[in-house]
Amino acid sequence: MFFAVYIAAALYLLFFMRRSVWAYYSYGEYFRKNTNFVPFLTIREYIGYLRTDDAIFGDVSFVNIWGNFVALMPTGIFFPAVWKKQRSFGAFALTITAVTVSIETVQFLTMCGSCDIDDLILNVTGALLGFWLTKLKIVRRLAFTDIGFEKGE
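Above: the chain sequence. Below: its structure as C-alpha cells.
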C-alpha cells in the first residue's frame, strides 16, 4: 500500500504538478533552455546560489538539489522489498538507472520539467542510499517481511 501511494505521489510530482511548455516553446527552444548533459553543471550552479545566499534562486536551489536526491530514495527500500531480484546491488543499480533515464526522457518528450544529467546523478545516488539503508536491521525487519500463504489459509 505504501509503495502504491509513493508511486502515485512521485508521478504527480514528476509529471502532473508542472505545466507542459508545449504552448510556449518549440522543441528546439525547450532543448536549449531545459536540458543539461554536462555532469555537475547544474549542481555547481545551485551550490553557488546557496553559498551566496541568493534571495531569488537560493530556495529553488535547495529544493532542487535535495528534492532530486530524496525523490527516488524510497525506491531503494521499496524495489528490493517488492521484488526479490532487486535485492542484488547490481540489479538494483541497473534498474534504478533505467527508471531515472526513462523519467528524464518522458519529461523531455512531454516538455514537463527539465532533462538534466544532474537530476539523474542525484536521483540514482539517493536511490542507492535508500538501498544501502536496507542493510540496517530495523529497515530489513520492517520492509522485508515476506508474507507467504500456506495451503488452506
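The longest helix spans residues 89-110.
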